[in-house]
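User: Hi! I'm working on a homework problem where we have to compare a predicted structure to a textbook description. Could you give me the structure for the chain below?
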Amino acid sequence: MAHLLGTQSLHVALPDRVLLADVTLGIDAGDRIGVVGRNGDGKSTLLRLLARQQEPDDGRVTVRGGVRVGVLAQQDVATPGASVRERVVGDRPEHEWASDPRIRDVLSGLLEGISLEARLDSLSGGQLRRVHLAELLVGDWDVLLLDEPTNHLDVEGIAWLAEHLRRRWSPKDGGMVVITHDRWFLDAVCTRMWEVHDGIVEPFEGGYAAYVLQRVERDRQAAAIESKRQNLMRKELAWLRRGAPARTSKPKFRIDAANELIAGEPPVRDTVELTQLATSRLGRDVIDILDVDAGYGEHVVLRDVTLHIGPADRIGVLGPNGAGKSTLLALVTGELEPLAGRVKRGKTVTVRQVSQQLEGLAEHRTERVSDLVGKFRSTFQAGKETVTPGQLLERLGFTAAHQKVRVGELSGGQQRRLDLLLTLLGEPNVLVLDEPTNDMDTDMLAAMEDLLDTWPGPLIVVSHDRYLLERVTDLQYAVMDGEVRHLPGGVEEYLARRRQAEQQQSAPSSSAAAPASGAATGTPSGAELRAMQKEVSAIERRLQKLSGQIAGVHEQLAAHDQDDYVGLQELTEVLQRHEAEVEELEERWLELSEITG
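Assistant: Happy to help. Predicted structure tokens:
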């Protein structure tokens, strides 16, 4: 394939260390490259070098003649007085850009709800990010260099961007390098990976799932000091292989090798044990939201919400920005009283939330990390293990040197991890996480997920990170149109419902109008059928998971002390919840199967 862009012997040094040492690599036509690595190891520096926005201390970057390179930086600049229209399409006449299919696709995919006449300096950070991304994507580029393009995008926006990039060029044309912590996105668009670490850039074939496999193989041969890291990635690999088949369908992902690596690897969570621990701490009644209307003053945001949160429920919450996710969390935490209905709480319930704004750290910015953590408990129960706060800090990537740093001097990702740790040390028994993945690299996300796997209590997560939701939660709900709806089919069902809602809104209002599509005549369109087929696959995966959980509960019942009536009752209730969900899923599966054939 044609060479587009490359580097020769790049060297970049900081005052205290070498960031990149003798790095030589290339981008060929057809390459879709994802870049991963720890924060601070040089990912963004590498991208700036490739874009020729930064000069190396030594070496050079070469671009083939005529190759057009488009760059998306992390920072978005709002030019005072400039409008969205001026930023995205410039001074081109409307008939010219409005007739361009690519521009129309980008505007509908990224700028829906944003006026083209709006001033850039009046936009929120998320809106400005979308405008900046739209400005780039309407252009005609041979190579795209993208630094955190999924920041501020919701699940739908991320899915749209992945689809846009997949069909932007033919498979053998164009090149792309993307830095993102969104692991679902990496698997959806990338065919190669670069890991930046220890001054080098190490290549891997395939997307994120394939990278995890190859990295586990590499770590198995490494020195003993890498053993902790290896075990964490083995656990993540086990989840990837037991999850959606699409994750492991990338070229060169050697399924036999993966199966051999995870042979005997236990499930990422011991569901039965965690349920028993949670029930012993909380009892059977945790939080019941019953027929609740919620809002602020006369403005009603949510109507007729009923949600049961059990002692070991792990719930993921999806929804477009502004739909009411924060209002739902406020009901759960008790910060908001319902306008109608009631919220029933168990007597022992203590809820703590890790928020986007990191309010818990605001008053501790001048304290050293070790001193702050030392104010809390001396031990922490992580599943079956009893660990010290220092060990938890190490687990979350804090070296001995980091533990001596003042809180205000930590990076955004480090502050987010510290806030999570302090929340856990505060001994809540219900944990709420609001966009917990911001500012974290993929290694730290895996470490956080590993810690959450030992959490013995209800977990409610709001996130646009699809991978995280599927990884750490078992139940998903959508906040849409003022309602809270269960999603048996998970994220795929949510996206299908959102597409259906958009199609209904854009359908002709006149009932006399001729049907424009299969949806209008009662026959699903091709896109709707594909969405339904994906939902069927998601339901089948969930049913398979539930089958294993039900079998585990039956084993527990058989081995349990028959005189322990309380314990038997608790296990029976877990079993009944699983069986009720199976029944609901099977009904939905039959309904979809009749349509899709």
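For your comparison, note the following. Confidence is low (pLDDT under 50) at residues 248-253, 509-521. The longest strand covers residues 3-13. Good luck with the assignment!
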